[in-house]
Write a structure and sequence with these properties.
Strand content of chain B: 5-15%
Largest interface: A-B, 57 and 65 residues
Helix content of chain A: 55-70%
CATH class of chain A: Mainly Alpha
Helix content of chain B: 25-40%
Number of strands of chain B: 16
Structural class of chain B: alpha+beta
Order of helices and strands of chain A: HHHHHHHHEH
Shape of chain B: globular
CATH topology of chain A: Fumarate Reductase Cytochrome B subunit
CATH class of chain B: Alpha Beta
Radius of gyration of chain A: 22 Å
Number of domains of chain B: 1
Distance between the termini of chain B: 47 Å
Structural class of chain A: mainly alpha
Oligomer: heterodimer
Largest sheet of chain B: 4 strands, mixed
């Protein structure tokens, strides 16, 4: 039994992360370079507008808050421990994150039921979309269970999971942090890497094309296929997508 | 001055017979793919009517176009903050039901049905879901005032008309309608471009055609509510927006766009306008009633030496300047003042102009007989069937004086030609009418020629695209010549 667990731990926490990260970086970039037409949020709001609101809005706001929290816990565990040293602050953060987690779950349930029940929405749902919805639901449920049964996550995350994740990124995965963890948490970690694995093959790539340039660009865009003024000026450099 | 050239259009509404040939030509070339079945980049509406998509002119619902807030131009539907907060669910997004659910018929049933007592029928099936459906609406179900109590009376341009005027419009003997063909206006201040979070929409520098880069569109959906004319459409299959491209592959090779080429009534004109791009922002901020004049002010005289010099300095080709001088659009819009922009109060500065229709009351029923109600041959326009106020809402930014000017000139030209050819109007009366309409005999002749006897070459003056020079910017043309191939060859498949 112990042997088997060792093998499984080694596979899921020392090998699997590298498989997923490799796929994430190589395939995402390759897909962007050769098939940028497929980078889209693939919105189905045009086909169904009401359930869309009750699914997409709670889901996205929930998951953004929860993911941001995970990133902060991972990046600055020390600061998180300092924040949590006063119990009131710890409770506020944990309860807020728990609510965001529930929001995400409610959103996901609405999204799944919309795509199941609405014929038009179902038409544009691919097998990849079902994989994404399935793994996300799994991940949110294990996350909520972890938060409820294994408190206080933000504190022990800083003490044990953050060091493990750092050890993965430093290319020397230290399994001692995770092998003793309860099964819910282990499943949550494996789920997270599975999402990273699915990422380049699914609609999740739309996260990478968030429209941040809009925030600082001028309202109107003009592209010149050719600009005689610039052809005739020998020193002017020209870019095919020249905005002015 | 920053002179740019714009391919612009005029539609002469008096000549439109509402045959939809333009729509079909466009559909057959561009929008018969999966996901585009419901799109009509070119559509023909009956006015008064609710149009396509239903009540597209109702900007309280769709929030299209611009508004001036504290002296600044702002999009009605979005801004930098709202782009982020509304990105998951766009509150102003029209849905398929605002257009119509496209359908086909199960024709196969006509052949495959088992023998029975009844004739087999081909049942309608949705082109979106593939399931059987009940057809409830189509893109032109208000055609020819069909279903007027639903469609015509809900025309948003009727708001503000008095009860009496409304009654007049729908009184059976005076009933009026006209056709309103629409394509993308290829605006100077396009709100679709300004709203696109991905920067996929852009205006082509060299000819002003507004295009949507399919590789950069990420389905954030902002352009669809932002365009007040509802001329960007969402392809639900590929997850990308699409719009009228003014048949640029045809225009670049000197051919008229398909809808122009196929127009049976020859109502469409295409030509170049030179304009001052520096003035776009200030022009779009004028009050509603002054917008038509302000936009005309931006359009420059291609015969003016100063304009020609500045245009050349800006790299505009001699052939383009020559095309601008021959442009039928320039004549209709600027020289003659006959063509007006649609709903310029949306402040996108549309570059498609309409010659508004004349709909005079020629006769009315009195008792059992129908007789001519007018002393004069062409009547007072305040008694016309289409209230000036209604037309002014569509084509004048609410300013009735433009409509009066156009209609007066049009009727003066008809009187002038009638005096010439039929002779039942005195020459002196015709000349008087011309004088009152701010028109000379020569001008009247020009308008008559270009309206009635126009050839293909008169209607479409398309400048050479000079794409052969485009490559000079990037590399040695001779080197490039050895490398040319097929370009982008990916199938437009739906993404994962």
């Amino acid at each position: 039994m112990n042997m088997l667990q060792n093998y499984l731990d080694t596979f899921f926490f020392a090998l699997f992360p590298y498989v997923t990260l490799f796929a994430f970086f190589v395939i995402t970039i390759q897909r962007y370079r050769s098939k940028s037409f497929t980078y889209s949020s693939l919105s189905s709001q045009f086909l169904e507008n009401r359930q869309h609101f009750w699914g997409l809005v709670p889901f996205h706001y929930g998951i953004i808050a929860v993911l941001t929290a995970h990133f902060v816990w991972f990046l600055v565990p020390g600061t998180v421990l300092w924040w949590n040293s006063i119990p009131a602050r710890l409770y506020v953060m944990e309860i807020a994150m728990f609510i965001f987690g529930l929001m995400t779950l409610v959103g996901l349930i609405n999204i799944v039921s919309r795509r199941k029940t609405n014929v038009r929405a179902r038409i544009v749902t691919s097998p990849a979309d079902w994989w994404v919805l399935g793994i996300l639901t799994f991940q949110v449920i294990t996350g909520i269970l972890t938060a409820y049964f294994h408190r206080w996550g933000s504190s022990w995350f800083a003490a044990s999971l953050a060091p493990y994740l750092w050890s993965v990124f430093k290319l020397s995965p230290d399994l001692s942090y995770v092998s003793a963890m309860p099964i819910t948490i282990k499943l949550h970690v494996v789920g997270a890497f599975s999402i990273i694995l699915l990422f380049p093959y699914t609609r999740l790539v739309h996260i990478l094309v968030l429209p941040n340039p809009y925030l600082w660009r001028k309202p109107q865009l003009v592209r010149w296929n050719w600009n005689r003024r610039k052809i005739r000026t020998p020193n002017a450099s020209f870019k095919a997508k020249n905005n002015n | 001055m920053d002179i740019r050239s714009q391919i612009s259009m005029v539609f002469h509404l008096d000549k439109c017979i509402g045959c939809h040939t333009c729509s079909i030509a466009c559909k057959n070339i561009w929008t018969d793919r999966k996901g585009t079945e419901y799109m009509w980049w070119n559509n023909v509406e009956t006015k008064p009517g609710t149009g396509f998509p239903t009540r597209w002119e109702d900007q309280d619902k769709y929030k299209g176009g611009w508004e001036v807030v504290k002296g600044e131009l702002e999009l009605r539907s979005t801004n930098k903050t709202k782009t982020i907060t509304n990105i998951f669910h766009n509150p102003n997004m029209p849905t398929l039901d605002d257009y119509y659910e496209p359908w086909t018929y199960k024709y196969k049933d006509l052949f495959d049905s088992p023998e029975g007592d009844d004739q087999p029928t081909a049942r309608p099936i949705s082109m979106v879901t593939g399931e059987e459906m009940d057809i409830e609406a189509g893109p032109n179900w208000d055609d020819d005032l069909a279903g007027s109590p639903i469609y015509a009376e809900n025309d948003i341009n009727l708001d503000g008309l008095s009860e009496e005027q409304r009654e007049q419009m729908f009184a059976i003997e005076r009933l009026m309608m006209f056709y309103f063909p629409r394509i993308c206006n290829h605006c100077l201040n396009p709100s679709c471009v300004a709203s696109c979070p991905s920067g996929a929409l852009y205006k082509r520098g060299e000819d002003g055609i507004v295009l949507l880069d399919q590789e950069e569109c990420r389905a954030w959906r902002s352009c669809i509510p932002a365009c007040p004319y509802k001329k960007t459409y969402f392809n639900w299959n590929t997850g990308k927006s699409e719009k009228c491209i003014l048949c640029f592959p045809r225009v670049e090779t000197g051919q008229a766009p398909a809808c122009f080429h196929s127009c049976v009534g020859r109502i469409r004109y295409l030509g170049v306008l030179l304009y001052d791009a520096k003035k776009i922002e200030e022009t779009a901020k004028f009050p509603d009633e002054e917008l038509v004049d302000a936009q005309r002010e931006m359009i420059l005289d291609p015969f003016d030496e100063n304009v020609i010099r500045e245009a050349k300095k800006n790299g505009i080709a001699d052939s383009t300047i020559e095309a601008a001088q021959k442009s039928p659009v320039y004549k209709f819009v600027k020289e003659w003042g006959l063509a007006l922009p649609p709903h310029i109060e949306y402040r996108t500065l549309p570059m498609l102009f309409y010659v508004p229709p004349m709909l005079p009351v020629m006769s009315a029923q009195e008792g059992d007989s129908v007789r001519n109600v007018n002393e004069e041959f062409f009547p007072d326009f305040d008694k016309a069937r289409a209230p000036i106020k209604y037309l002014a809402k569509m084509f004048g930014g609410g300013n009735e004086s433009h409509l009066r000017y156009v209609l007066k000139k049009q009727s003066a030209i008809r009187a002038y030609r009638r005096a010439e050819t039929v002779g039942d109007i005195e020459k002196i009366d015709a000349d008087k009418a011309l004088l009152e309409a701010d028109c000379t005999a020569a001008e009247a002749e020009g308008i008559y020629q270009l309206t009635s006897l126009c050839t293909f070459e008169d209607r479409f003056v398309i400048p050479a695209a000079h794409r052969e020079e485009a490559i000079e910017m990037m590399k040695d043309p001779l080197e490039h010549k050895q490398e040319t191939g097929f370009g982008f060859r990916d199938e437009p498949e739906r993404g994962w």
